[in-house]
Amino acid sequence: MLICKHKGMTIAVLTRNEHCPPHVHVGNNDWDARFKFSFWHNSVDLWDVEPNHKAPAESVLEELRLVIENPVNLRKARQCWWTIHSSTFIKTCLDNKYWDPINNEEIDGKNATAGTPQIQLATYDPANDETTLTFAGGAAPLRIKL
User: Fold this and answer.
1) Is residue 107 one of the residues assigned to a domain?
2) What's the pTM value of the predicted model, to 2 decimals?
3) Tens digit of pLDDT for each residue in 104-132?
């Protein structure tokens, strides 16, 4: 699904055989870059470029990252990912992860300590660009306005 175009390159969420983490693809005939985004924060990170030996200059990748991180484009990327995956097991890619309530961030299960809340379900509301985390054990849900 098309997110946007930038200097002749298409930035898109692919619709088949996708997997966590949420990401977009962009590239040309020589290379394909993947940029990760999240349903709980507004930053975008370069994930990888294949083949690596044909990767464009760092300045090009950074320019693309900033285009994707633009609030309009990031929101569209989330909406597309949610539309494609809302009925699958990967949804927001936050289910069964752990939440650090002190730093307000997702953490890996191996870094979770006793009492760290586990995310039972994470849902996204495209109309309001908002994610709701529901925790195992009955803790109050957390709404994150993006």
Assistant:
1) yes
2) 0.94
3) 999 988 888 888 999 999 999 999 999 99
| SS3 label, residue 75 | helix
Residue 22 dihedral angles phi and psi, to the nearest 5°? -55, 135
Please state the φ and ψ torsions of residue 140, each to the nearest 5 degrees.
Answer: -60, 140
- Do 9 and 74 share a domain, yes or no? yes
Give how far Cα 65 sits from Cα of 71, 72, 118, 130, Å.
12, 13, 30, 22
Q: In angstroms, rounded to a whole number, what is the distance separating the alpha carbons of residues 50 and 102?
A: 37
Domain boundary among 85, 108, 133: 85
Alpha helices in the chain (DSSP H): 58-69, 71-85
Q: Are 38 and 22 in contact (CB under 8 A)?
A: yes
Tally of domains in the chain? 2
Q: Does 116 map to a domain? A: yes
Residue recorded with tokens 């927001």: 92
Give tens-digit pLDDT for 84-103: 998 888 899 999 999 999 89
Q: Are strands 98-100 and 45-50 parallel, antiparallel or unpaired?
A: unpaired
Domain that holds residue 25: 2-85
21 and 42 fall within a common domain: yes
